[in-house]
Design goal:
The complex is a heterodimer of chains A (552) and B (423). Chain A has 552 residues and is an alpha+beta fold. Chain A contains 17 helices and 17 strands. In chain A, helix 5 (230-249) crosses helix 6 (254-269) and helix 7 (275-303) runs antiparallel to helix 14 (441-465). Chain B is mainly α and 423 residues long. Chain B has one domain (3-411). The longest helix of chain B is centred in the C-terminal third of the chain and has 40 residues, at 372-411. The relative contact order of chain B is 0.11. The chains are: A alpha+beta (552), B mainly alpha (423). Chains A and B meet through helix 7, helix 8, helix 9, helix 10 and helix 16 of A and helix 7, helix 10, helix 14 and helix 15 of B.
Chain lengths: 552, 423
């Protein structure tokens, strides 16, 4: 169904809910009345003709009053149906001084964190939300940073918040007696912080866990330790200036965040990408995917106590880093993509180098399999642990290998094609329950491992077919007209989406990065009761969450 | 006569020209001899545990295709000294909320438990601190002291993660002591004594005289003892009490400096103890092939010293082989989950080890030692042992060969290099 058909369908069912159909936008949106939002959402989810079970993105945009128009806060909901392969954007306009909306957590559980973020950064209150509190900023922070008229407080708990003041003050005294005051035991169970600097949390994430001996009663993720406000920064540094910052969103898959950002701006500005540049993008991306999946699978093995496989993967990853250094001059934060192409060409020597490396790498994958994949202890630690069934996976917004691990064959590269991926021959990997049931931790691990092989296939074809030509189109100053766009790429941690609102200037009015780790974290609280501490570690590892990607 | 006793008497006789039986200060001589003996044993522990850390790290480096410590001294062989000195120089931190006496005492208790076991280890034909007639029982008892130490460390740190580690290790050690004791019981039944020298004496120098190849039940007991010993030593795949990815470091998380080192010291010393116990109980101990213990005892002068040295070397060699296996296992396998750990112990190892002890009893009653059936059993078990060793070597070789050419093509150098040319 096209967007207008969906709008008609919604109008027919709930005539008074629809305010306007905004077809002028790149992603056409339906504006609904705030009071009828939940109803509209539930209809779109359950109606047999729409079946939108997947809430892709929930975020907000702050609009300052401009002349006659009063200020408002727009909540944006991107819906998608895996079954029908169509999507729609819902939008509600809220009063800027007192923004209140109904929560859609009851429709899609994944909305929980998205709404918390809107509450935190934009000050939108959601009625009926189960756990409405700040997520990125500290709980007692004053103000909402993504508001356009936000003034940063000078001090927080007596600590200066800007750099000059910190330098002037010299040493900062942080821990005081009140901070280490003993917490009263409330529940009779052991409560403890797993993190923020715990070896298994893959970065600075905290889990507030409550255990009965070794068995978890619940684990509540607490994030925001790595929040750098990249979306806010992007509003200040402009479109091209944001490109290096996207590297830092996902440092293991920087090529994909680069790519997604480039796609978004190219779509806004209608920039064509030369064919050779598309090949360069694919080659660089797939190399990066291999590197990222290696870290994911290796780190999972390390979390389960097997140190050696991780280091063997690191050895192979060094070669990828060397190749990346040849391609774009950096080993980790690539900053490779440009609007309308890539920063440098991949020369023939490098392509030969990649081919030579692939010849070496394919047998090395077998080495890794021999080392750990068939290990009985490893299998028993992962099989039948933390099973996610497909319905849950969709409702909690899992994407990428986590979703495919639950048996749903959905890959953005194939199903919503971008770049030139549909020209290559490769398969979408799904979990098969090889050692347990479909959707267990081993399937997610297995999916990643087999995806590496598919990336190798794509790489071989791309190296074979890369045409001659330019790698970048000449672009004028990036100054897109006022519009909104949402683009997505298939990153190693799944769908990596970029929601960009432009206002006719050379800087984005608002941007929101939809990352796989952010939504994957929401399912942990749901899955945790009854797991053991060691299983929680396996779950986190198998979901491949990455702290900077969660917090951005 | 006990060698320590003999030495003390000799001291009194030669130095003071007195009869040790009547001289009133004999006890001082005894104390001195015991003290020197303890110091020597301590030196052995230190000298063994130290380099083993370096050897383990070099082996781990090899397994993980990296180099490992190679800077301090030739091939990095003084790394352990550097580490030790570094730990001595570090501040001995005590958390403000810790239970101080427990916290401070725990490392010593752990260390004493490990160190005490060295008293009865028969390093050579006559190289033993004290040949107690309850030797094996003594080892089991004194190493149990470690549990108390670990619990004290876990509780005294007043950290929840440390408590997790302490409780995990207590549960694990107490559980795995059952199968390890039952496996050793099979040996005790065969030897008819608890004395460590007696057990070694009941075996011979040749492999078919070792207890491990005597009959299938003892072979099984050896494997079960080895597994339980790894579990008691908190080594991978049973290293749950110090699982860094789950409970960060376990019971030693709050410790620093030398106290922290004592825990690691005890861990590496324990690795040697379990290898030594397995050697003496199952692999013939220090017995020299073709030389009977009586001949060693009758030898005089340098021949005597030579036999002692040879037996010592044999014992240490066998033990080191087992230690290497433990190290290899540690750097290859992932870790079990806590319920799987308990299932392994109580559902499989405990009944099977009981069964093996019973089986040994049955065979002792039914099969005459030295008879045809006995020899057939020994031969068959030796064959099985050789097959296991062969399969192991073949597996390692096949894995190596599979990657060799590929590695050489990419790296331009050989995957294999001889030990004397380590990088």
């Amino acid at each position: 169904m096209t967007e207008s058909e969906i709008c008609d369908r919604l109008k027919a069912a709930l005539p008074d809910a629809v305010e306007e159909f905004e077809s002028q936008l790149l992603d056409p949106a339906i504006r609904v009345k705030p009071a009828r939002l939940v109803e509209a959402c539930r209809f779109l989810r359950d109606d047999p003709s729409t079946r939108m079970h997947y809430l892709r993105l929930v975020t907000g945009v702050d609009r300052l009053p401009a002349g006659e128009t009063p200020g408002r806060i727009e909540m944006v909901y991107h819906l998608w149906s895996y079954e029908k392969r169509h999507g729609i954007v819902l939008r509600v306009h809220l009063d800027r001084d007192n923004p209140v909306a109904d929560t859609v957590c009851g429709v899609w559980p994944v909305a929980n964190w998205g709404e918390r973020e809107a509450f935190d950064l934009l000050g939108v209150t959601f009625t009926g939300h189960p756990d409405l509190k700040r997520i990125m900023m500290p709980v007692d922070w004053v103000g909402h940073p993504l508001r356009k008229d936000y003034q940063r407080p000078d001090r927080y708990h007596g600590l200066p918040t800007n750099r000059t003041a910190v330098l002037e003050q010299g040493r900062v005294q942080v821990a005081t007696a009140e901070h280490v005051a003993k917490a009263e035991p409330v529940s009779g169970y052991m409560q403890l912080n797993m993190g923020p600097h715990h070896p298994a949390t893959h970065g600075v994430i905290n889990f507030l866990i409550e255990t009965d001996g070794e068995v978890l009663r619940r684990a509540i993720p607490d994030v925001g330790y790595l929040h750098r406000g990249i979306e806010k920064i992007s509003e200040m540094v402009g479109y091209l200036g944001t490109m290096p910052y996207t590297d830092r969103v996902d440092y293991l898959g920087a090529m994909f965040t680069n790519h997604g950002w480039a796609l978004a701006v190219e779509k806004l500005c209608n920039i064509e990408v030369p064919r050779r540049a598309e090949f360069c993008r694919v080659i660089a991306s797939e190399l990066n995917r291999i590197a990222s999946h290696q870290i994911a699978t290796g780190a999972l093995a390390m979390d389960l106590g097997a140190f050696t496989p991780f280091l063997h993967w690191i050895r192979e990853r060094e070669k990828i880093n060397d190749i990346m250094e040849r391609i774009c001059g950096a080993r980790l934060t690539y900053n490779y993509m440009r609007f309308g192409g890539v920063s440098r060409d991949i020369d023939q020597v490098t392509i030969d180098e990649i081919r030579r490396w692939l010849d070496h790498y394919e047998p090395m994958m077998l080495e890794f399999d021999r080392l750990i994949s068939g290990n009985e202890i490893f299998i028993r630690r992962l099989a039948n642990v933390a099973v996610i069934d497909p319905d849950d996976a969709i409702a909690y917004g899992l994407v990428g290998p986590n979703l495919r691990g639950s048996g749903l064959a959905w890959d953005v590269r194939r199903d919503e094609p971008y770049s030139i991926y549909n020209e290559f021959e490769w398969d979408v990997i799904t979990g098969t329950g090889v050692h347990g049931v479909v959707g267990d931790a081993f399937d997610r691990y297995d999916c990643r491992l087999r995806e590496i092989r598919e990336s190798v296939r794509i790489l071989r074809q791309a190296c074979e077919r890369i045409p001659e030509g330019e790698v970048r189109t000449k672009t004028a100053r990036i100054k897109p007209a006022a519009n909104e766009v949402y683009t997505r790429v298939e990153g190693p941690r799944g769908e990596c989406g970029f929601f960009v609102v432009s206002d006719g200037t050379d800087k984005p009015y608002r941007s929101r990065f939809r990352t796989g780790s952010f939504t994957a974290m929401t399912i942990i609280e749901h899955l945790s009761p009854g797991l053991m501490i060691a299983d929680l570690v396996a779950l986190i590892g198998s979901l491949d969450v990455l702290a900077p990607e969660i917090d951005r | 006569m006990n060698i320590m006793h003999y030495l003390a008497d000799l001291l009194v006789r030669s130095l003071f020209k007195a009869d040790p039986a009547t001289w009133p200060y004999t006890w001082i001589a005894y104390a001195v001899v015991i003290g020197v003996g303890a110091l020597l044993a301590f030196a052995f522990v230190a000298i063994f545990a130290g380099p083993v850390t370096w050897i383990e790290r070099r082996i781990a480096g090899r397994i993980q295709s990296r180099i490992g410590p190679n800077r301090n001294g030739p091939q990095g062989c003084l790394q352990w000294l550097a580490d030790g000195i570094k730990c001595w120089l570090k501040e001995d931190l005590v958390p403000a909320t810790a239970d101080k006496p427990l916290y401070l005492a725990a490392p010593y208790l752990v260390f004493t438990g490990m160190f005490g076991a060295f008293v009865v280890l028969p390093f050579g034909a006559h190289v033993i601190a004290a040949d107690l007639n309850v030797g094996l029982l003594y080892i089991l008892a004194v190493t149990s002291l470690v549990v108390v130490g670990l619990l004290m460390a876990g509780w005294g740190s007043n950290s929840k993660w440390a408590l997790f580690g302490g409780v995990r290790s207590a549960a694990q050690l107490v559980s795995y002591e059952v199968p390890s004791a039952f496996s050793l019981m099979a040996v005790v039944l065969m030897a008819g004594t608890l004395s460590t020298q007696g057990i070694v004496g009941a075996q011979g120098g040749w492999p078919w005289q070792w207890f491990v190849f005597r009959n299938p039940f003892l072979f099984a007991a050896f494997i079960m003892y080895f597994i339980s010993a790894i579990a008691e030593g908190n080594r991978t795949p049973f290293d749950l009490p110090e699982a860094e990815s789950e409970i960060i470091a376990g019971y030693n998380i709050e410790y620093s400096g030398m106290r922290f080192l004592f825990f690691l010291f005890a861990e590496w010393a324990n690795m040697w103890i379990m290898a030594a116990v397995a050697t003496l109980a199952f692999l013939g101990g220090w017995q020299i092939p073709g030389i009977s213990p009586e001949r060693i005892a009758e030898a005089k002068g340098w021949t005597f010293v030579g036999w002692q040295a040879l037996s010592f070397a044999i014992f240490v060699f066998k033990g080191t082989c087992l230690v290497f296996t433990i190290i290899q296992i540690r750097w290859t396998l992932p870790r079990l989950r806590v319920d799987q750990l308990m299932i392994t112990c109580w559902k499989y190892l405990v009944p099977l080890s009981m069964g093996s002890a019973t089986g040994v009893l049955l065979l002792m009653a039914l099969v005459r030692e030295g008879g045809i059936v006995d020899w057939v059993m020994r031969g068959a078990m030796l064959l099985v042992g050789l097959l296991v060793a062969g399969a192991y070597i073949r597996k390692v070789r096949a894995t190596f060969m599979a990657d060799r050419d590929n590695y050489k093509k990419m790296e331009g150098r050989d995957l294999w290099y001889p030990p004397y040319r380590l990088p």
